[in-house]
Design goal:
- The structure holds two protein chains of two kinds.
- Chain A is mainly α.
- Chain A is built from 13 helices and no strands.
- In chain A, helix 5 (88-123) runs antiparallel to helix 6 (127-139) and helix 9 (208-215) packs across helix 10.
- Helices cover 79% and strands 0% of the residues of chain A.
- The N and C termini of chain A lie close together (11 Å).
- By secondary structure, chain B is an all-alpha fold.
- In chain B, helix 1 (2-37) packs across helix 3, helix 5 runs antiparallel to helix 6 and helix 6 (145-172) runs antiparallel to helix 9 (200-223).
- The chains are: A mainly alpha, B mainly alpha.
- Chains A and B meet through helix 1, helix 6, helix 7, helix 8 and helix 10 of A and helix 5, helix 9, helix 11, helix 12 and helix 13 of B.
Chain lengths: 315, 311
């Protein structure tokens, strides 16, 4: 187990390191010099331009700048926003809580509803299965932005139950404002998880050891819990990991749709304003979240499944 | 009369292969495609013709689906919008196939080191969400359809190539490939003329599903204002009209949204029918012929452990 953990940690750091080089390098290969963002339409004199370039350390070679940036990041200094002049860490810190809360709410919805529907479909063949299948086929094609538009139209404008944009103060206000965004992201993920759950559980139900256990007279709930569900868990956990990672990507869209002050909205704004230090930091954080989700799902699988634990430590 | 006969035979054959849902999906997509191609002939009005007197007009004879905030005809905008909305994903899937298939075939044919390296690269790209990659590319090159399409093409290569590689791998170990190799045919001839032809249904089916997802991603980007730009009619751009939404005019926003969902639904249903499996394509671990649901309880000869394959 310890070796598996080390192995995953190494892979995680390598991926983060490679993507940090990629992100840092590519943003400075972009056409147009970064300091032009500051000048806007003004035409500064060469001396002013040189001074600004020096202040932003743009007169140094790329590897040096990368090294400075990386050591800064390790010490918690993510640079300064070129548009507002605030430290990037502050801007991210202001939105991080909202985004994490939003992702958490979405995933709770996805796990409860998705697995519930999938289990119902697997255990009740016939009409329930057919209804769930039809529902999931449609729901996996409803993208978060279309779901947002529908939800705003029905629950914010017509019914007025939830705010159409922005979130309130305090935990209650936040939860109230994040319900619709969470539902908008959960629609597509619920469908995926329900399908994966249904297929995984069906596959286990057909296996001989389950049939044997039932024939021997073990209670149905026991068979379901310790024979079927335990074996069906690995693909379900993989799917939850993938979907959590995908939810982080979806926050880009949904936070913009509902004007939620979070990481996703910050990314889109910074991209539009060409605020490179913020884009860099946020992109790296999203990649980190993505990689962490996948690593976490692998580790949880190893915890759930002793066979994987052995395979992991031998490799 | 003869033509009618042929049409009927063609229809019966398609119906037999695609089933009811597949045929409905195929017909729907054919209609969408025809309308997109013949947009100037079909559209009742100029999609960019603003008329402030008609602002937020409801459905009527002159505007079948009503008009938006500056009086542009929604039906015409939907019809013209289908052009940009379908062109982008078509390019994405085309490029992804063009690069992905040769890589996947090479990986499956040579195995060993080549396979390992290609798989590693695919895993790395697969680890990045396509949407994030596209947003970063837009940050680099500015908003527009081209950077978005380039970024998504890269993101979709592993999606398709992994499936092609797995399918080609199965063919690689079958006896007919050995027989061809013994007869002295070269690697290119065997892979392209025999293996690729045999796995064609999987390739086409998964390409249709990928087309659907690419459409969603591109529409999301256009919605954010990062791909197709505002005055151009596009389904994603139309959904981003939050003004209309907040004023309670839902039709200008929901109509393109519903069209997106229906198109993607048709693509996934058709793709699943063509590749002969139940969706979803990429979350399933192994392709297995599943007979009727009545087979529950009937012992299948299946002795592989489910754990190793989970990834």
């Amino acid at each position: 187990m310890g070796r598996l953990l080390l192995h995953r940690l190494g892979g995680l750091l390598t991926t983060l390191f490679l993507s940090s080089i990629l992100i840092f390098g590519s943003l400075y290969l972009a056409p147009g010099s970064p300091e032009n963002v500051l000048f806007g339409n003004r035409m500064p004199s060469p001396a002013v331009r040189a001074a600004v370039r020096h202040r932003l350390h743009l007169d140094q070679p790329l590897p040096v700048r990368y090294w400075d940036w990386l050591t800064g990041v390790v010490h918690g200094d993510l640079g300064t926003s070129m548009v507002t002049g605030q430290p990037v860490a502050d801007r991210i810190g202001a939105g991080l809580g909202n985004t994490l809360l939003l992702v958490l709410m979405t995933m709770v919805l996805v796990v409860v509803l998705g697995m519930g529907m999938g289990l119902a479909a697997a255990l009740l063949p016939g009409r329930v299965d057919g209804a769930v299948s039809a529902l999931t086929s449609v729901s996996v094609t409803v993208p978060p932005f279309v779901a947002s538009a529908l939800l705003i139209s029905v629950f914010a404008v017509k019914a007025g139950w939830f705010p159409a944009s922005g979130i309130g103060d305090g935990l209650g206000g936040k939860l109230d404002g994040l319900v619709l965004p969470a539902v908008a992201m959960a629609v597509i993920s619920c469908g995926f998880l329900a399908r994966v759950t249904r297929n995984a559980v069906r596959e286990q139900l057909e296996r001989e050891h389950v049939q044997t256990a039932l024939v021997r007279g073990l209670p149905r709930t026991t068979v379901l819990r310790s024979h079927v569900l335990r074996n069906a868990m690995p693909p379900i956990i993989t799917a939850i990991g993938l979907l959590t990672a995908g939810t982080f990507a979806s926050t880009l869209v949904v936070e913009s749709a509902f004007a939620v002050p979070g990481i996703g909205q910050l990314t889109i704004q910074s991209v539009a304003q060409k605020d490179f230090p913020v884009v860099q930091a946020v992109a790296l954080m999203l990649v980190a979240a993505f990689v962490l989700c996948n690593a976490a799902s692998d580790l949880i699988q190893a915890l759930v499944d002793p066979r994987l634990r052995e395979a992991g430590s031998s490799s | 009369m003869k033509a009618g006969h042929l049409m009927k035979a063609f229809f019966t054959r398609t119906y037999g292969q695609l089933g009811r849902s597949g045929t409905v999906a195929a017909v729907f997509l054919a209609v969408v495609l025809l309308v997109a191609l013949a947009a100037p002939l079909v559209a009742p009005a100029d999609p960019n013709q603003a008329n402030l007197l008609d602002a937020y007009a409801g459905p009527s004879g002159s505007h079948l689906l009503g008009a938006d905030g500056i009086g542009r005809d929604i039906l015409s905008r939907l019809i013209y919008g289908s052009r940009t909305s379908l062109l982008g994903p078509a390019l994405v899937v085309g490029v992804a196939l063009l690069i992905g298939i040769p890589l996947a075939l090479a990986a499956s044919w040579y195995g060993g080191l080549v396979d390992g390296v290609v798989a590693r690269i695919f895993d790395l790209v697969y680890a990045l969400p396509g949407l994030l990659l596209a947003v970063l590319t837009v940050a680099l090159f500015g908003p527009g359809l081209t950077p978005a399409v380039v970024a998504l093409s890269i993101a979709y290569i592993p999606f398709l190539a992994r499936i092609v590689r797995a399918a080609a791998r199965q063919q690689r170990v079958s006896p007919y490939v050995d027989a061809l190799a013994v007869q002295g045919f070269g690697a290119v001839r065997i892979t392209v003329r025999h293996i690729l032809r045999n796995i064609m249904p999987v390739v086409v089916g998964q390409a249709a599903i990928a087309f659907g997802y690419a459409l969603l991603d591109l529409a999301s980007l256009s919605y954010l204002g990062l791909a197709v730009q505002a005055p151009t009619p596009d389904w994603g751009v139309m959904v981003s009209d939050s003004d209309a939404l907040l004023k309670g005019y839902w039709l200008p926003v929901i109509a393109p949204g519903v069209l997106i969902v229906l198109t993607v639904l048709a693509l996934t249903v058709l793709g699943a029918r063509i590749s002969g499996e139940k969706p979803p394509g990429y979350l399933r671990r192994a392709r297995r012929q599943r007979t009727a649901p009545a087979a529950v309880g009937a012992a299948e000869s299946n002795d592989k452990t489910p754990v190793g394959a989970a990834r």
